[in-house]
Protein: RpiR family transcriptional regulator
Amino acid sequence: MSASLLKRILDMTRDMGAAETRIAEYAASHPDEVMHMSMAALSRACGVSDPTIMRFCRRLGFDGYQEFKINLAQTLVPAAPFEYEQITATDSVENVVRKTCRNSLNAIQRAQVDLVPAQIAEAGEVLARATWTGIYATGISEVTGLDAEHKFQRLAMRCAAVIGRKKQWMQAEQSRPGEVVLIFSQSGATRQMVEVASAARAGGARVVSVTAEDSPLASQTDVLIAVRPYEHTELMTPLASRLNHHLVVNMMVTVIAKAMGSQFPDQLPALDSWKTDKI
Structure:
């Protein structure tokens, strides 16, 4: 039951009165806060009485508020720590499929717990105000940078993915106030990206990094979105962590759209040729 609790809360709002609906909407929007709030604090936040909260909990099938909070916590926190399953040469195709899917699902589930919404909100606001955004990445992270470029441009942002060591260094040295440098790095230890961040800040640009916390790149960053690298990034191509970087791009796009008063990404007209030119 816990795995679908947030969905159940939203699905049941159509049968609730105004006061219970406020509780439902608050719980669905701020689940991490609610699981640490007392009943009195939630009452104040929603402008309702304690008996209304008890009625809300019983509507969901719980004996009281404490049981509701326990189930809410189980919804948000994975049952076990993330553990990467190494794929080996002896694995069958069935095992390859199972391990790849399980690693990806577990990493996304952990990201829901590990990501700090305030960091994504701050990054989105900074990017929305930028006069121009340079998107920097190297290696496999270049795919994420190009994905961000495509999605940002659909919001009419002035931006470009800057690919290639020489081009990145030349562009970073020309950074100026009002511009933002957005960097994607799995480990945060790639010398090239750390030097780009340092050069951009020296020119007056702000640096937003999607990278590992407490990394060398994080120390050269104005706004950090901390994404834990789950695999040994120095030994293998980090698929699971890269998926989470793509999720962060989608989150930032939505925050930027809100800040700019733009349409949400899934409401924008299609720009791809497969949609506009298909037979």
